[in-house]
């Protein structure tokens, strides 16, 4: 289980500036839902002073992504665009009193969304696509330039570090050799030598193997988590109910104001993150409507 600071928990459970800014004149979008994380940052910039007067975010991702997006919008309010562009992913993590190494890529995503929003305001084209032959990780569309930048900025030493900060290599692992080559190149430029046996930037203590939960124990814990989150949802006129648990997937119904809300996907992502923290295992949380679609498809296949 990852060790989250109180600041991360605060910005996750009560995020600041969630939602789109009305009359925004700067928009930055990075990531994709298919890759697991996506962020849309909207800003209202004073055209005379270029001061950021309002900032808002819409995030699809884990609790760290929500917390990083939330704190970023607080950091940059009141800054000029040039001042905001100096904000680094380390600044974002520092404001959260640190992030687990495996979640540092969330702070990187926030910084990129800010760069994209400033470019959008200034009528410039911001690209995160790749030069011919420079794409390293096809699973998450990460290029060599980004990997090199993160190695320099964050003093990365291992493939594990690169995966934690960029997600590169976190899928099929086919790009690990290419990542090692980049590490060798950059470290040599810094007068250092790449050591494949080096410890990661922050060594994470390995937890003892736990006895897997039975499905009955899993359902009970899920119900306990939903009960603990329910007051926050009900305060906004919404609610959630558990419909079914099948293997590592929990099907839920979002009710009341949460039903059809544009932030429902973010709420479900937050519930999923909280469940993984409590259960100590991976679990997907999806709308019950998806279960109905699956049943219909299977039924059609047997017809």
Distance between the termini: 44 Å
Q: How is the biggest beta sheet arranged?
A: 3 strands, antiparallel
For the biggest β-sheet, the strand order reads: 1-2-3
- Reading the helices and strands in chain order gives HEEEHHHHEEHHHHEEHEH
Note the main attributes of this structure.
GMP Synthetase, Chain A, domain 3; 45% helix; Arc Repressor Mutant, subunit A; disordered C terminus; three-stranded mixed sheet; 303 residues; three-stranded antiparallel sheet; Sufe protein. Chain: A; globular; alpha+beta
Explain what this protein looks like in three dimensions.
This protein is of the alpha+beta class and 303 residues long. The chain has three domains: 6-121, Alpha-Beta Complex (Sufe protein. Chain: A), CATH 3.90.1010; 129-207, BFD-like [2Fe-2S]-binding domain (Arc Repressor Mutant, subunit A), CATH 1.10.10; 215-302, 2-Layer Sandwich (GMP Synthetase, Chain A, domain 3). The protein has helices spanning 6-13, 63-76, 81-84, 89-95, 104-121, 144-154, 159-166, 176-189, 215-235, 264-279, 288-302, and strands spanning 26-32, 37-45, 52-60, 135-137, 142-143, 238-246, 249-256, 284-287. It has a three-stranded antiparallel β-sheet with strand order 1-2-3. Strands 6-7-8 form a three-stranded mixed β-sheet. A two-stranded antiparallel ribbon has the order 4-5. Strand 7, helix 10 (264-279) and strand 8 form a beta-alpha-beta unit. The model is unreliable at 129-133, 203-210 and 293-303 (pLDDT under 50).
